[in-house]
Structure formats: structure tokens, C-alpha cells
Amino acid sequence: MNEFLIAIHRDITSKDASPSPAQMQAAIKPFQDWIGSIAAQNKLVTPPKRWDLDGRVIKNNTVLNGPYAEIKESIGGLVLIRANDYDEAVEIAKGCPIIEWGAVVEVRMAIQPPQ
Q: pLDDT for 11-53, tens place per residue?
């Protein structure tokens, strides 16, 4: 079984970047159900975390407030899962309900560093 990162990217510049309280409430239950289904299959490695929209970017040994203003997307969440291969990981990621609200979901496999 391999470990995969599911990174949820959100558009932080559009007028829809900040959902209303009602929209947030409507999004919570489907997301909890999705995470619960992954956990029920014993494929959830760590609980998902929500990340601050602010951050720091280190570029050319300079620390800047980030993410960059010209970048449209920011990481909205990270989920670590277990899956046999990319196909299975992608199928799990496709169930992320946040996709319905325009988020982009990226899947990456963890690899062991060379010894």
C-alpha cells in the first residue's frame, strides 16, 4: 500500500473565494462524510488539516509574505491517504465534494528518498 497526498487548491482571488456562512455550513457535512468513508476503509493516514490563507514564501533566500498576490490559488487543505496505486488514489480524490465548488484537487504519491 502506498501513501498519497491529496492537495486541495482554492481560488483565493475571485468573488467566490470567501463562501458565505450558509455555503460553509452546507460544505461541512459532505466533506466530513468523504473523510469518514476514507477512514472507514482504513485508508486515512492523518486527519485533514485546514490551512491559513496567509503564509510565507522563501525564494532566493528571502522570506516574503505569501502566497504571492499574482497567484490565484492557495492550498485549502491536505489529506494523506493509503491506496494501492494512482488509479485508486485518484478515485478516492474524485469523491472530494469541494470539487463541486470549483476547487482543484491534486494527487501525489509519496516516494522513499534514495539511501
A: 666 655 566 778 778 878 898 999 999 999 999 997 666 666 6
Nearest one of 97, 87, 104 to 2, comparing CA atoms = 87
Name residues whose C-beta falls within 8 Å of residue 8's C-beta, 6 or more positions apart in sequence: 75, 76, 77, 78, 79, 96, 98, 103, 104, 105, 106
| CA pair distance 22, 30, nearest whole angstrom | 14
Q: Which domains does the chain have, with CATH numbers?
A: 2-14+21-109 (3.30.70.1060)
- Cell 474524485 -> residue: 94
Q: Which residues pair with 73 in a beta bridge?
A: 11
Nearest to 103 by CA among 33, 39, 40, 19: 19
Q: How would you classify the pairing of strands 2-11 and 44-50?
A: unpaired
Cβ-based neighbours of 105, under 8 Å, separated by 6 or more: 6, 7, 8, 9, 93, 94, 96, 98, 99
Say which amino acid occupies 101: W
